[in-house]
Amino acid sequence: MEIGEGLKARLVGLALVGSLLAGNMALATGPWLVILADTGPVSAWFWRLFLALPFLVVLARVNGQRAGGMPRKTLILVGSALVLSRIAAPSPNGSTSNGADDMMPSSKGAN
Predict the structure, then answer these.
(1) Got the DSSP string for 55-101?
(2) Together in a domain, 51 and 98
(3) Which of 18, 63, 104, 111 shows the smallest number of beta carbons within 10 Å?
């Protein structure tokens, strides 16, 4: 039995929409997992980016792109965006900070 072209296209479209929704739900759990983690926001931020690297390398290889190196202008733009997003992120006490206070040991729960 052969699937018609219209039905096949509809199934592919549903699969893509399902993947999009699943990805958005996975991203939405990120803040909850940071709260539940036994680390600070800066550490969680680092590990979320670092753990994504192997998947990004595989994705680049599958698409025929080189996995290493990027143009200097792009690197500066991306690095600046990451730094600015970290500076603008509110700290747990509600104020904006440079993130250095997030790396200091906390006295929560200490006697």
Answers:
(1) HHHHHHHHTT--SS---HHHHHHHHHHHHHHHHHSBPTTSSB--SHH
(2) yes
(3) 111
